[in-house]
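Entry for the shared binder. Reason: the reviewer on the internal report wants the predicted structure included alongside the sequence.
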Amino acid sequence: MREIKKNVLILVAVSSALLSNGQSEAILLKESFDDANLDLRGWYDGSDIRIAGDAAKGDGSLEYEWVEGNPKVHASTTKRHLFEPVSELYIRVYYKISEGWQWTGRNYHPHIAYFLTTENPEYHGPAASHLTLYVEAVNGKLRLAATDIQNKNMPHGLTQGELKGGYNGKLYDSKDVLFEENKWHCIEAFFKLNSLDIKNDKPNNDGIVRGWFDGKLVIDYDNVVLRSTDFPNMKINQFLIGPYFSPGLIDNNQKLWIDELIVGTKRTGCLNKLKSSE
């Protein structure tokens, strides 16, 4: 555990040096999932990794599996990576769902990937935090979302809506169903934390949430509030991969693959050519 934290701190220090040198295109996190040695590259938390030969690019991709009759996720476990804290960032990642994929038909789940902030520790769960940002697919649409359940008893309360059944969230969905089975899709998102009017003790409505699907802008909001003045020093500093269906929502044999991840301070864009077209 001590060695994992040491590796993470080294990688964060490198990212910090890049940013301090004025490199606006600094990459905070880059992972191609070509092998299972993720912990050697600063990843931590779960221990199970399955690398599939099917890849958007390179030699492999990260595989998650669900088995009929067993609601738990198989193959790979939750993985996390810390990076230099920032107030805004881009992500580019490829998702692929297997043929015969089953959606829930409900307006929640599956969750796939998340960002957490400096206001929570390195092993904090994403479900109830001071801010969790989501990059996922729900019923075939691209979804970006935010929750802040842990802020219920903070002086300024919740920013992502009132609790319903113990949960809250602001949802930003694509208008159309976009995901096709057995096809790699390029997912991009941009999150910018809103600024704060400290003098008047209120948040400014200038946060940004944007999403692109295979290079096309499908989600675009520029008047978002993601934090209150309870968190003047909040920054985004952790990426978490943890695909999850709540028990009882699906009962199907299906797989999800994740590949070619980049998190940075500048938009990277989609790959020019995928492995399947080479």
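Summary line for the report: The first helix runs from residue 2 to 20.
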